[in-house]
């Protein structure tokens, strides 16, 4: 979060970015970055069960279960491929890349830094790097293998969400329902990765019309060690915020991801402990492109780079 959601897509390419992002959130620490409400949320039909906490928790967990099942189903059902722009902070600069998805690997081509187009020399270097990847089948295979391995872990983690936490309704806004979550004391982590659930609290927003995740935020309440610290450790207070939106009929993509934690996680190959990503300008493309064709398409369809937001 993609195979997939994170960087390459084969038949299941769609949701890898979501799963990869949620996995970052789940494994790398996290906390709700949405502003705290200053006044209590008004009661709504979704939260009317507050007079019966047991019923409320049960129905909230059922909503999460249905939504998770729908997200996992999307991995198998959506075989579409897309071109989009991705802003990520790298080495102190906000880098804008074109990402072109193919069944073999994703082509990544830098087009701007800090909201400004690259100089002719910088663009040539970026194009040379992208073109080299387009002809390097070994590099493409390595990308695919890493992402496929992470996809499996991501799917396992996502499938645990309904059981790993207890959920409580907060309120509704149109088709969106907000929930808070805390660790389920009855949940027994089946893997090293799943240990992080016992240290997480946060909130989730679900589109109840489409049964899709809209926002997922949380924080680590205490330190977590994987394999006694050998496989990694995450410090309390780490934060994350993931937003997803519909970019085409029935097609949802990650639009914003912020991760800020201290520690290390050797369990995944394609995630970073400090990560900011904003994705825009989604456009559907043919589903049978080669990586070389993706490079040509990126050059032809280069759009004006989006300016970095202040405070990014």
Quick structural gist:
With 312 residues, the chain is α+β, with helices and mostly antiparallel strands. It is built from five helices and 14 strands. 29% of the residues lie in helices and 33% in strands.
Task: Explain this structure.
The protein has one domain. Helix 1 packs across helix 4 and helix 3 (120-135) packs antiparallel against helix 5. An 11-stranded antiparallel β-sheet has the order 4-3-2-1-14-12-11-8-7-6-5. The relative contact order is 0.22. The chain is α+β, with helices and mostly antiparallel strands. It has helices spanning 16-27, 53-77, 120-135, 137-164, 291-300, and strands spanning 81-90, 93-101, 106-113, 116-117, 165-173, 176-183, 200-207, 212-220, 224-226, 232-234, 239-248, 251-260, 263-265, 274-285. The longest helix is centred in the middle third of the chain and has 28 residues, at 137-164. The protein has 5 helices and 14 strands.
Outline, from the CA principal axes? globular
Structural class: alpha+beta
Mean pLDDT figure: 78
SSE topology string: HHEEEEHHEEEEEEEEEEH
